[in-house]
Amino acid sequence: MPTMPRHLLSAGDLTRGSAELILDTAERIDQAMAGREVRKLPTLRGRTVVNLFFEDSTRTRISFELAAKRLSADVINFSAKGSSVSKGESLKDTAWTLQAMGADAVVCRHSASGAPQQLSGWVDGHVINAGDGTHEHPTQALLDAFTLRRHLGRLDGRRIVVVGDVLHSRVARSNVLLLSTLGAQVTLVAPPTLVPVGVDAWPAQVSYDLDGALTGADAVMMLRVQRERMSGAFFPTEREYSRGYGLDERRRALLADDAIVMHPGPMNRGMEITPGVADGVNSVIVEQVANGVTVRMAVLYLLLSGEMDGGL
């Protein structure tokens, strides 16, 4: 029986067995919820989940909140803005406050890479990384893998192309680690200025030829250009970026017939991806958002219930 780590801090912490356990549990949860008039399970009644967000977020925060509530957990939403953090309270002091409140799980998003790892040493509850700096976002990778598996079946040997701002993307790092663990072949495509140092050590290929990488691929994942993290000019103009690394109808036609188009959101429409492709028949971008709730329910269930054999 595969085992779960105590905390979910990195996609690299997951073995193939534990990753597939999460994805299989998400499938069971989806089946258990189907047809219910009240879309809730009593699994985590009496448990407390704290959403600790030091960065702005809409999709991820709401997704975790909805996931916890659908499992009947009590949810506390903690935002840095308007809290004691804005008065200078340290992360460690905040952790001690959460510890005193008896938080069973802390979902942490922070602008500093490694913050959830630090937090995990200060609280007794489980810590889930909801995105730390430019480091990782493991539950996004899990929901992406869940979506890919639903459309493509097993991921062994499947060719997945990840395109865009790899340098600043925690989504790219987590997806490379997780998808390679699940047997997929990942190719990163980006301008040379948006490829991180040390990428040669990642379990992925790197290409600067988008058309060549897309030809016959089973899925393409477009990344958001994170201009808020850029301190300089990483490419000449938006039009130039779109011409070299944007996904349009012509490029989508290069993919395999059953290939899917993905994006973690929010999208810069017209720059990274054209509206016609984003809203097209092969796009699963909206489905990714829905799958995020199911996958995060599975993560919370496995970490907090301690049941690995499907006691749903």
Automatic annotation (TrEMBL):
Q: One GO molecular function term?
A: aspartate carbamoyltransferase activity
Q: Pathway listed for it? A: Pyrimidine metabolism; UMP biosynthesis via de novo pathway; (S)-dihydroorotate from bicarbonate: step 2/3
Aspartate/ornithine carbamoyltransferase Asp/Orn-binding domain segment(s): 157-303
Q: Which UniProt keywords apply?
A: Pyrimidine biosynthesis, Transferase
EC number(s) reported in the record: 2.1.3.2
Describe the location of the Aspartate/ornithine carbamoyltransferase carbamoyl-P binding domain by residue ranges: 6-149
This protein's superkingdom? Bacteria
KW Transferase (keyword) present: yes
Kindly give the InterPro entries that the UniProt entry links to this protein: Asp/Orn_carbamoyltranf_P-bd, Asp/Orn_carbamoylTrfase, Asp/Orn_carbamoylTrfase_sf, Asp_carbamoyltransf, Asp_carbamoyltransf_Asp/Orn-bd
Q: Which GO terms describe its biological process?
A: 'de novo' pyrimidine nucleobase biosynthetic process; 'de novo' UMP biosynthetic process; amino acid metabolic process
Query: Binding residues for L-aspartate, per the UniProt record?
Result: 87, 170, 224
Q: Which reaction is the catalytic activity of this chain?
A: carbamoyl phosphate + L-aspartate = N-carbamoyl-L-aspartate + phosphate + H(+)
Binding residues annotated for carbamoyl phosphate, in chain numbering: 59-60, 109, 137, 140, 265-266
Q: Does the keyword NAD apply?
A: no
Its Gene Ontology cellular component terms are: cytosol
Subunit details: Heterododecamer (2C3:3R2) of six catalytic PyrB chains organized as two trimers (C3), and six regulatory PyrI chains organized as three dimers (R2).
Please give the function described in this protein's UniProt entry. Catalyzes the condensation of carbamoyl phosphate and aspartate to form carbamoyl aspartate and inorganic phosphate, the committed step in the de novo pyrimidine nucleotide biosynthesis pathway.
The Swiss-Prot or TrEMBL record describes its family as follows: Belongs to the aspartate/ornithine carbamoyltransferase superfamily. ATCase family.
Q: What is this protein called?
A: Aspartate carbamoyltransferase
